[in-house]
Amino acid sequence: MDRDPILQVNGLSKAFGGVQAVLDVQFALLRGEILGIIGPNGAGKTTLINLITGFVRPDSGTITFKGKNIRGLQPHKIANLGLARTFQVMRPYHSLPAFKNLIVPLNSPRVRRTRAGKLGDKDSVAIDILEEIGFERDARVPYKTAGSLPLGYLKRLELARCMALKPEVILCDEVFSGLSMSEIASMIPLLEKLQMEGITIMMIEHRLRELFRLADRVMVINFGQKIAEGIPEEVMEQEAVKAAYLGTGKRK
Amino acid sequence: MAEKGKRKKRMDRSIKVRCEGLYAISSWREMGYLALPRLLLIAGLLVVPLLLDMYWQRVLCAAGIYALLALSFDFLAEYVGLVCLGGAMFIGFGGYTSGVLNAYFEWPPLMTIPIASVAGAVMSTLVLIPCLRLRGIYFAIVSFMLPLFSVYIIIALGLFGSTEGISALDTFPNIWAEQYLIIGAIIVALFGLRRLVNEDIGLIFRGIKDNDQAVRASGISITAYRIKAVFIAALIGSFAGAYLSHLYGWLGLSLFAMDFSILPIAATVMGGMGTLVGPVIGAIILTPMSEALRGFGQLRVVLYCLVLIGFILYKPEGLMNYLERKYHQFERWEEV
Lengths: 252, 336
Prior knowledge:
Number of domains of chain A: 1
Distance between the termini of chain A: 37 Å
Structural class of chain A: alpha/beta
Radius of gyration of chain B: 21 Å
Number of helices of chain B: 14
Low-confidence stretches of chain A: none
Strand order of the largest sheet of chain B: 1-4
Strand content of chain B: 5-15%
Shape of chain A: globular
Largest interface: A-B, 31 and 19 residues
Low-confidence stretches of chain B: none
Shape of chain B: globular
Order of helices and strands of chain A: EEEHEEHEHHHHEHEHEEHH
CATH superfamily of chain A: P-loop containing nucleotide triphosphate hydrolases
CATH architecture of chain A: 3-Layer(aba) Sandwich
Number of helices of chain A: 10
Oligomer: heterodimer
Helix content of chain A: 25-40%
């Protein structure tokens, strides 16, 4: 692949007290690809996203987004550059109707700047985004309070909030977790569509089969360190990855 | 706990559903259903002064001040997620600014009140900015200490008449101007805030309350929006303070009294958190009640606290949420 990196991370480290959550991680996210991040629980995957998006300050390392160093910027500044993220534990605005949840990102400086004149009615833009992301099955769902929506819709709402930002990169933190097989099956085309539209996606995922259908490359993290990177099938054959996932003991 | 073999069944008046959104303007009946409570409130506020004697008219003015403070408290607590106990600071900054402008420069109240509202709000906001990173109880504690802080600065530096205060400020021309100014302000603030919380900026405020991390991930600076929210609340509070100093023609350290921070909370809890109109009604009930108990002196604070505890224990939803439910639903006993 000869695409240029849109996001470049070098020597990124973060320790929480004595726990080394992320240690000297280095990778590049190429424009237009889907990069899967896998690793056992507690490997530092979510921390990695938190570090990139500015929610947690790194101890050392550089993060370059579109040639600009974004380390140390406030989270909202980073989001405004076009780097959106979802949260593993969904963070909807419970008290607002689902479509009003999107009014918040639609008011960000980024959206105002890029589509200021032709934006039109924000409510209808929000409804359009929700329809695009799969709320269309029941016309009344977008008007329900977010706090009353089932999990599947909340996951979609997380993604919708990113899409409303019109980002160039989306960092997805386990968008499939807790979803049924059929819900996942309907999410996959959605992510493929985002990729077709030119959005670069980095996704943390535990559902490997689904991830491998989507991802162009995967990166494996264990104990905060990158242990492998490459095409999904090859990566899973590596001994270090097998050890991290299945253990080094004698079971099976 | 009710009669044996029966239970209370609550039914929604179907009209409520029909009144949501655009459908509300489909018939006069539905429009009337929505407008009635609002018109009742406005008419009530406008008529009440005509029914009172001189003494209770003055009490109503004081109640209006508490109502504005309660509104600003409710707005910040329920729509922005900042529990601000700095009502006394808003009153103090607004009151001192307008009083000083009036006493030293002899500007008329018509000028000092608007200037002091804005200046007081700017000062309050500036003082609170460093605390905006704090959340929940920590913000509450700091905002509660700031008025006390201000009192000691004024005493220590001997500013503005120090402990004596400044008297003989201009007052309002007559009792009617006094009353209708504050009633007008309450109506404007109440309906203005109700409108605001459903506008885009209000939705962002509510987003910050529900989930500030998600707001940051959406590219919006929560600090900038919290500053805007605090300014709006402080504007309402400082107006009340400026009004107060001209109402009594006097300014002094009691503008920073704890009452201004505490009674609004009692009024809000009593009226119904998050309803905006509830706190106004709560203040209009509580203030005359505390006035009637003036003979007990500081024991009045005990009264607020009892009301507060009583409502938290027995009617945590508050008056307005209760009334609203009754308006939208009817109940009947049915056989089990």
